[in-house]
Design a protein that fits this description.
- There is one protein chain.
- With 232 residues, the protein is of the alpha/beta class.
- Helix content is 45%, strand content 16%.
- It contains eight helices and seven strands.
- The chain has a seven-stranded parallel β-sheet with strand order 3-2-1-4-5-6-7, with helices on both faces.
- α1 packs across α8, α3 packs parallel to α4 and α4 packs parallel to α6.
- The longest helix is centred in the middle third of the chain and has 22 residues.
- The model has no long low-confidence stretch (mean pLDDT 96).
């Protein structure tokens, strides 16, 4: 059976991706950073998925994770954190933390996962954001980190293609997950009016795109927008 790792898998897009891959017959390991309550709920809902605590920004934890997993077919790099603040109110430490998790975590996981993929090939799918493509007002740190994910994806695709490993990226738009749970009803309606399809996306729709890229063997180095037409 094929093996997959999904980072940030206890809720939202990561949970939906872990669920879909498991349903498609993959042996799935999902990671979470620290929230044990989310992990307990995810374990109850997805008993076929193994959940492992690992902070993707800490290299020793990442190294331990992939040493335990061994051979790997699919890697979904979804773990991330948000930061909504004007640039003058953004602390340097907060900016660095967002970069460490969102961009640094992608680098560290790819670095250590590739060792278990080189022999037989495989697929890496990163999760960026529409704001990584266009920039988001009051989300400079988050946008910078997600832009870095896109650049890293394209560079890694070139590097790993000779080894039969595809590397692609999904760039979700406004998705109905906990990350957007802070929005008021008025803010939601305003955003929906800006989306040509007229609604927020779902985590399951992003998971469908992740699975497509994970299983397509002749697409690499691409960014697939799952954004309802918000950015074309």
């Amino acid at each position: 059976m094929k093996r997959a790792v999904v980072t940030g898998a206890t809720r939202g897009i990561g949970f939906a991706a872990a669920k879909l891959l498991s349903e498609r017959g993959y042996i799935v390991t999902g990671t979470y950073a620290s929230n044990e309550e989310d992990a307990r709920r995810a374990k109850a809902q997805l008993p076929g998925v193994q959940f492992v605590r690992a902070d993707v920004s800490r290299e020793e934890e990442v190294r331990s994770l992939f040493s335990a997993v061994g051979r790997l077919d699919v890697l979904v790099l979804n773990a991330g954190i948000a930061l909504y603040a004007q640039v003058q109110d953004t602390a340097g430490e907060a900016f660095c933390r967002v970069m460490d998790v969102n961009a640094g975590g992608v680098f560290l996981c790819a670095k250590h996962a590739v060792k278990g993929m080189l022999a037989q090939g495989g697929a890496i799918v990163t999760v960026s954001s529409v704001w990584g493509e266009t920039g988001g007002s009051c989300e400079s740190a988050y946008s910078a980190s997600k832009g870095a994910v896109i650049a890293f994806t394209k560079a890694l695709a070139k590097e790993l293609a000779p080894s039969g490993i595809t590397v692609n990226c999904v760039a979700p738009g406004v998705i109905d997950t906990a990350m957007n749970g802070h929005l008021s009803g008025e803010e939601r309606r305003t955003l929906e009016e800006e989306i040509p399809l007229g609604r927020f996306g779902t985590a399951e729709e992003v998971a469908d795109a992740i699975l497509f890229l994970a299983e397509h063997r002749y697409i690499t180095g691409q960014v697939l927008g799952v954004n309802g037409g918000l950015h074309i």
